């Protein structure tokens, strides 16, 4: 393969996501297959500033598809937010002979990549975040596994809530977006889902529903709260005060970010990793890898970051209709 780059770097940045390791493996192995050297950079942009990097071989990424977390570690670097930090990172790339960089993470990671690109480094981003909140792509690595991890816990909670005839209020991650909560809510058959994209009236939209369902004989309830929509604790207190139902709060927290990636995340991460190296080898820069209709493509970073991702309205409408059931 006649590649425009001879040596590339790969890093993970921001919150980790299951499948990041599979993406690293794909980047390293694809680079080697294309005759490109690959360097791993530890702790994201902090490692780039510190020059904390090492050459990666095909063997270094053995057995990575099934491993959660990121072997390259991750960080949110304050120094990299500054012009001086960005310049230092770009200078280090040149000093180390890195002529292309694959950055794996979410929107903060892509803003960093965009800055490096302005300093003359060829960059391509791979979307990996359990929040699935990157507008230019339908899917981000880690989302499916995180949804399944949440569901596993919620199914267990339902058993105990049923036994005690209680209401369970469960807070899930998602930062400022409700994608994770929406899918988890559907999959869990939740009574109600609170997401930041939809304003609700607690008494009318949740409590009345619970009251009616109780009259029909239902004895346990599951309410999903996206972290960006408010605190599960205060929702639980209001529900308890207005209905008298014994209510318990569970904040699922960082458990949602860990664990073995599921098949969907392993496969999409591998495809995205391959595509990212293709982009750099073709001499392109300032791109984000995207995934739409079962295909990988790429978009300009500035354009991608300017897009807005709303929730899937038709999915919300289905949820709304179905939640009013038994
Ligand atoms: O972006 C991924 C995410 O897990 C969000 O859902 C959450 O708001 C945030 O990261 C938590 O960040 P930290 O790991 O720094 O607490």
Radius of gyration of CA atoms, rounded to a whole number: 22 Å
Strand content: 15-25%
Give the strand tally: 11
Q: What portion of residues is helical?
A: 40-55%
Describe the model.
The termini are far apart. The strands form 2 sheets. This protein has a 7-stranded mixed sheet with strand order 3-2-1-4-5-10-11, with helices on both faces. The mean pLDDT is 96. The chain has 326 residues and is an alpha/beta fold. It contains 11 helices and 11 strands.
Question: Which secondary structure elements does this structure contain, and how are they paired or packed?
Answer:
Elements: E1 7-12, H1 20-33, E2 37-41, H2 44-50, E3 53-55, H3 83-95, E4 100-105, H4 107-118, E5 123-127, H5 143-164, E6 167-172, H6 179-188, E7 192-194, H7 202-215, E8 221-226, H8 232-243, E9 247-251, H9 263-281, E10 287-292, E11 295-300, H10 301-306, H11 313-323
Parallel strand pairs: 1-2, 1-4, 4-5, 5-10, 6-8, 6-9, 7-8
Antiparallel strand pairs: 2-3, 10-11
Helix pairs in contact: 1-9, 2-3, 5-6, 7-8
The structure holds 6-O-phosphono-beta-D-fructofuranose (F6P).
Short note summarizing the structure:
Helices cover 43% and strands 17% of the residues. The chain has 326 residues and is α/β, with parallel strands linked by helices.
């Amino acid at each position: 393969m006649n590649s425009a780059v001879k040596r590339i770097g790969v890093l993970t940045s921001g919150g980790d996501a299951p499948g990041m390791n599979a993406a690293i493996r794909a980047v390293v192995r694809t680079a080697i297959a294309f005759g490109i050297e690959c360097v791993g950079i530890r702790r994201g942009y902090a490692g780039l500033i510190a020059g904390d990097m090492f050459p990666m071989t095909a063997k270094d990424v053995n057995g990575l598809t099934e491993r959660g977390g990121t072997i390259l570690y991750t960080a949110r670097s304050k120094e990299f937010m500054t012009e001086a930090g960005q310049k230092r990172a770009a200078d280090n790339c040149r000093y180390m002979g890195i002529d292309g960089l694959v950055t794996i993470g979410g929107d903060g990671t892509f803003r960093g990549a965009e800055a490096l690109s302005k300093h003359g480094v060829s960059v391509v981003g791979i979307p990996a975040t359990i929040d699935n909140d990157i507008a230019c792509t339908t899917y981000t690595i880690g989302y499916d596994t995180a949804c399944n991890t949440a569901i596993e816990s919620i199914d267990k909670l339902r058993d105990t809530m049923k036994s005690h005839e209680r209401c369970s209020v469960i807070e899930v991650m998602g930062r400022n977006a409700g994608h994770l909560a929406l899918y988890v809510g559907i999959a869990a058959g939740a009574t109600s889902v609170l997401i930041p994209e939809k304003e609700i009236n607690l008494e009318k939209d949740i409590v009345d529903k619970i009251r009616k369902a109780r009259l029909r004989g239902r004895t346990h309830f599951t309410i999903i709260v996206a972290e960006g929509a408010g605190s599960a604790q205060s929702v639980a207190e209001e529900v308890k005060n207005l209905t008298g139902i014994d209510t318990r709060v569970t904040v699922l927290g960082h458990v949602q970010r860990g664990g073995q990636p599921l098949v969907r995340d392993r496969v999409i991460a591998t495809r995205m990793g391959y595509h990212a190296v293709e982009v750099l080898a073709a001499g392109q820069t300032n791109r984000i890898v995207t995934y739409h209709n079962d295909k990988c493509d790429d978009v300009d970073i500035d354009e991608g970051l300017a897009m807005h991702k709303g929730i899937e309205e038709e999915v919300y409408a289905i949820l709304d209709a179905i939640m009013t059931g038994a």
